[in-house]
Amino acid sequence: xxxxxxxKKVIVNENERGFLFSDGKFVKVLKxxxxxxxxxxxxxxxxxxxxxxxxxxxxNTLLASEELKExxxxxxxxxxxxxxxxxxxxxxxxxxxxxxxxYAYWNIADKHEFRIVDIxxxxxxDDIPQEILKKALxxxxxxxxxxxxPYQKVILYFDHKFERLLEPGxxxxxxxxxxxxxxxxxxxxxxxxxxxxEIMTMDKVxxxxxxxxxxxxxxxxKIMTEIDNYIEQIHIAAQFAIRDYVGxxxxxEVLSNKDELSEFVLKRxxxxxxxxxxxxxxxxxxxxxxPGEIRDIMNTVLMAEKKAQASVITRREEVxxxxxxxxxxxxxxxxxxxxKLKELEYIERICENVGSINLNGSSDVVxxxxxxxxxxxxxx
Length: 380
Prior knowledge:
Layout: E1 8-12, E2 16-22, E3 25-30, E4 33-37, E5 41-47, H1 59-62, H2 66-71, E6 72-77, E7 84-90, E8 93-98, E9 101-106, E10 112-118, H3 130-136, E11 143-148, E12 152-158, E13 161-166, E14 169-174, E15 180-186, E16 190-200, E17 206-217, H4 220-225, H5 230-246, H6 251-256, H7 258-270, H8 273-276, E18 278-289, H9 292-334, H10 336-352, H11 365-379
Antiparallel strand pairs: 1-4, 2-3, 2-5, 6-9, 7-8, 7-10, 11-14, 12-13, 12-15, 16-17, 17-18
Helix pairs in contact: 5-7, 9-10
């Protein structure tokens, strides 16, 4: 009896390769062409524009083929005891970063090249172009990017040990077995507000004082490595200075000598500049807040003082007005013409407020009005 063999045709195009399997085992790589399979033979067709891989076996199995090695670029990254990466270039252009593992790319449609980089030291060497580092940011996270602004300095630590101080700029460090950490320090003039310090004066009045001081850091490394929370240390130093001053004076003396208080605190802070690694440029009192009952008393005293001042001003104006009237009367007694003019002035004012006036006699109008005014005045 004649045996029938079912044949299957497979076409491998120019931009493809075929993996021939027999009984589930990889046999060889097939180039472009027409092939027939039957029985337990099978051909897997793959694109040469993709990395070398198979759905039916591992990459290591494929790499045993000499035909594949002739047409593929192969790189092995890392391994036991190694800390390295591979920079992947396609047709001379950076494509990406490869971490630990074995990689293979078809060198048919494109040319694949690799550069092995030792990253056992955290420092990214200067021979790695900045363009590659910038592109690598969008591919895979293989390094730390640290940007130091013009008004900053950065303290760099390797495995929590101080390494060095970074000046303004952009820095890259590999992500390897070394723990890279940083502390940012602001180099600009800084302001510290000391709010609501409750302090008792010599006469047992409790005040709340808001204080402010301005400073710049002088040693950016020591202030971060030798002082635990330098801002809190400055805060405490200012607190102690304010308490020392206010406790020696009475309320009225504190209120009237705010500038002296500011100078005292600034002097005390400057004495601690070397200890705190800062330089103080200014310090001053913003507000002094009194207790409610004291504030009411002082408002009452202030109101009484203002009323007394107003009374003095009123009496002073009355005296000045009386003196002015006396001087005017003396002048009119000594000068008939001035008296006549003053008389006419009053007649004019009367006429402005009177609707009509009836006069009899042969004398002139002004004389009659004057006589009428004198008569009215005499009756009063």
